[in-house]
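=== Structural record ===
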Amino acid sequence: MLVTHEHYDHNAVGVVASPETVVVRERVGVFNLGPFRVKGVRLPHDEFGGRIRGFVIAYRIEAGGVSLVHLSDLGRRLEEAEARELGPTDIVLAPVGGVYTLHPRAALETAELLGARVLVPMHYWLPGMQLPLEPLDEVLRFAKKWRVVRHTESWIELGPEELPPQEERVLLILKPPRG
């Protein structure tokens, strides 16, 4: 289990981990975790260089011929050097709700900068939430170059053969786990 940062509203290690679970907390650099090659990159959680909300770790994970980048709670667009360090990648999980993280348009631009063929939006407003986040509709408003695919589950398996062609961009919306 990879922990990107210790904010109370994200970290549920105690709820989901078993005694056998390997938990890696905010680790920077390249390391192996079972069959996964992982690279942790420290990034600001806000647009002011981390001075307001601190820092997060974005993780690049490679296994089975597929690369994935989880951008955690990235608070601003990636800089070119950061994008080179994390990309290119096949799949990006990006926060898209604005306010505390990337604006929806910036999330799409960041995924493009990383060369992602698949963008999985996360950290956006859902009915019943008390956080002032943008809803998924706001992301869809800017996703004109992306083919939108709504998945019927809250999880998905993607191998190299399930990825779209290199020139295609897919916005993959997973079903929220509770609703």
Observations:
- The chain has one domain: 28-173.
- The CA atoms of residues 46 and 75 lie 4 Å apart.
- Residues 28-173 form a domain with the Metallo-beta-lactamase; Chain A fold (CATH 3.60.15.10).
- The first strand starts at residue 2 and ends at 3.
